[in-house]
Amino acid sequence: MTEVVLGTAKTPGATRILMLGGGELGKEVTIAAQRLGVEVHVADRYENSPAMQVAHASYVFDMTDAQKLAEVVAEVQPDLIVPEVEAIAASALKQIQDETGITVIPTPDAVRITMDRQAIRDLAANQLGLPTSPFAFAGSLEELQAGAEKVGFPCFVKPTMSSSGHGQSYVESPAEVEAAWNFASEDARAHTGKVIVEGKVDFDYEITLLTVRSRDAVTDEIVTSYCDPIGHRQVSGDFVESWQPQPMSDTALARAQMIAHQVTTALGGCGIFGVELFVKGDDVIFSELSPRPHDTGMVTMATQRYSEFDLHARAILGLPVDTKADHAGACAVIKSPSEIDNPQFTGLAEAMSIPEIDVRLFGKAEAHQGRRLGVVLARGTDIENARKRATQASDAISVISGKEKP
Ligand SMILES: Nc1ncnc2c1ncn2[C@@H]1O[C@H](COP(=O)(O)OP(=O)(O)OP(=O)(O)O)[C@@H](O)[C@H]1O
Ligand SMILES: NCC(=O)N[C@@H]1O[C@H](COP(=O)([O-])[O-])[C@@H](O)[C@H]1O
Ligand SMILES: [Mg+2]
């Protein structure tokens, strides 16, 4: 058995993490790691990002710039590099790991493959033979028109490097293809000049299956564990509500776990993965996955003894995990309704007077329309009851423009 040794932050023996991306998910990973005494350094594209507000140190730069990324790694000298967003110079991570010996979580290739819809489709559909939506890739409007005809209407057009619905369009007819092409290039998280077009999957419900690869304390082998499935509802490609556990047939759950096992085993490394799947009856279709905590998985802060953030922190540090859920729960988002200066939140007392409600306000200073600024977490007697409480509480909360302090 390999002994895991953790240091103390801010001392020469500290265990140090460099997180690439510092949004709401990174903020919770930072807190989880700090509870284990870890020193957390956070990088992002803008100052004062949510995770930076709780980190030991922060760095603001364009993380798609490979040279700058290597410089920051050299300055921080972390034990682990933990990507938190897609928009990073992923192709440089392998060289950084090879040259410095610093582990990239879960692996440099897993980060590169999962941030690029073309690479993950190639792995999942072509190499592993997993069921997916029909798809095509396009590097020009003409190619996209041909691709849309091939997969059929209605279809989804998405930038190859994106998340939270950025640059995603639902396209019902050939006349809408050009607008989708333009929107994908305007609103992508990072610009690749390429899009995926996917035929619409007719599903009963969709889930995130949080899947953890961690080191077993007894055998020292890497083992795979699963959280209970998380159901969610998406609007314009971004989640608005999630709940756990999503009821599923035994066959569908077994298939979901098998797909998650296949794809995460192929990617390798240690950490949590958010495997997104569509379910129709007993059939399960692979959509995509994150090699890190998932936004829909924030519900685990209400449902599990160890949230997805605790699980990620433990798994990346080489520690064992326990994925058991002990409550039914739900999560509902708090989004900015428009461009708002100095966001402030009202209705919190009303929200918190509902039983078993908790609120996370992320600390994003810039509030533009649709930006996720917080979530409500609810426990309930069952998922229906938890969803009702979460939605009621998030409806009670409003984002307003605050006055500047004199
Ligand atoms: N081919 C499809 N068929 C049916 N629905 C789809 C399809 N592709 C996407 N969707 C819907 O849009 C949502 C977002 O799509 P996707 O996960 O690919 O985007 P994303 O920008 O990576 O989102 P996130 O970062 O939040 O995971 C899906 O969860 C699903 O509800
Ligand atoms: N679906 C991926 C996802 O939810 N990622 C989370 O959103 C942040 C970016 O938010 P922003 O766009 O508001 O800056 C990311 O840093 C991550 O925490
Ligand atoms: Mg998704």
UniProtKB/TrEMBL annotation:
- Biological process according to GO: 'de novo' IMP biosynthetic process
**Which of the seven top EC classes does this enzyme belong to?**
ligase
Q: Which GO terms describe its cellular component?
A: cytosol
Which GO terms of the molecular function aspect are on file? ATP binding; magnesium ion binding; phosphoribosylglycinamide formyltransferase 2 activity; phosphoribosylglycinamide formyltransferase activity
Instruction: Report residues binding N(1)-(5-phospho-beta-D-ribosyl)glycinamide.
Output: E24, L25, E84, D295, K364, R371, R372
Record's InterPro entries?
ATP-grasp, ATP-grasp_carboxylate-amine, ATP_grasp_subdomain_1, PreATP-grasp_dom_sf, PurT, PurT/PurK_preATP-grasp, PurT_C, Rudment_hybrid_motif
The alphabetized UniProt keywords are:
ATP-binding, Ligase, Magnesium, Metal-binding, Nucleotide-binding, Purine biosynthesis, Transferase
Name of one Pfam family that matches: RS_preATP-grasp-like
| All residue ranges annotated as the ATP-grasp domain in the record | 122-317
**Signal peptide span:** none
Q: Which reaction is the catalytic activity of this chain?
A: N(1)-(5-phospho-beta-D-ribosyl)glycinamide + formate + ATP = N(2)-formyl-N(1)-(5-phospho-beta-D-ribosyl)glycinamide + ADP + phosphate + H(+)
Query: Record's family?
Result: Belongs to the PurK/PurT family.
Q: How does it assemble?
A: Homodimer.
* Record HAMAP family: PurT
What role is this protein assigned? Involved in the de novo purine biosynthesis. Catalyzes the transfer of formate to 5-phospho-ribosyl-glycinamide (GAR), producing 5-phospho-ribosyl-N-formylglycinamide (FGAR). Formate is provided by PurU via hydrolysis of 10-formyl-tetrahydrofolate.
* Protein name, per record: Formate-dependent phosphoribosylglycinamide formyltransferase
